[in-house]
């Protein structure tokens, strides 16, 4: 069972965490199942960018991005080459390390 290492985030996971999740599980599902309440405004339907994560290790082990995800990521705050929507990034056999960006598009709109 692959392990997801979550780097510290001041709001969602202040101490960081390591969690195990079955292959085929989305990163978002795994985080939510382990009480890491990452935003997911569209209920994991690939219609927003609030669950955006940066995959620091293991990016190539995840399923490929589809066109919908690529288009949505263009609107994500803090986009990097190894960014994914956690609701669409499915675990394979390899461990991954993810960083939850400090802000999401919702934070930017609510706090301007």
Describe what this molecule looks like in 3D:
By secondary structure, the protein is an alpha+beta fold. The protein has one domain (3-110): Ubiquitin-like (UB roll). It is built from three helices and five strands. The longest helix has 7 residues, at 27-33. The chain is globular, with a radius of gyration of 13 Å.
Looking at this protein, list some descriptive labels:
18% helix, five-stranded mixed β-sheet, 19% strand, 112 residues, 3 helices, Ubiquitin-like (UB roll), disordered C terminus, alpha+beta, single chain, 5 strands
SSE blueprint and pairings:
Blueprint: E1 3-6, E2 17-20, H1 27-33, E3 52-57, H2 67-73, E4 83-85, E5 96-99, H3 105-110
Parallel strand pairs: 1-5
Antiparallel strand pairs: 1-2, 3-4, 3-5
């Amino acid at each position: 069972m692959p392990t997801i290492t979550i780097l510290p985030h001041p709001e969602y996971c202040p101490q960081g965490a390591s969690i195990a999740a079955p292959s085929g599980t989305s990163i978002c599902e795994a985080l939510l199942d382990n009480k890491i309440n990452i935003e997911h405004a569209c209920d994991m339907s690939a219609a927003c960018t609030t669950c955006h994560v940066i995959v620091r290790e293991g990016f190539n082990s995840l399923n490929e991005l589809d066109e919908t995800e690529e288009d949505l990521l263009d609107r994500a705050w803090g986009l990097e080459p190894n960014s994914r929507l956690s609701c669409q990034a499915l675990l394979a056999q390899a461990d991954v390390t993810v960083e939850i960006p400090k802000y999401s598009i919702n934070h930017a709109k609510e706090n301007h």
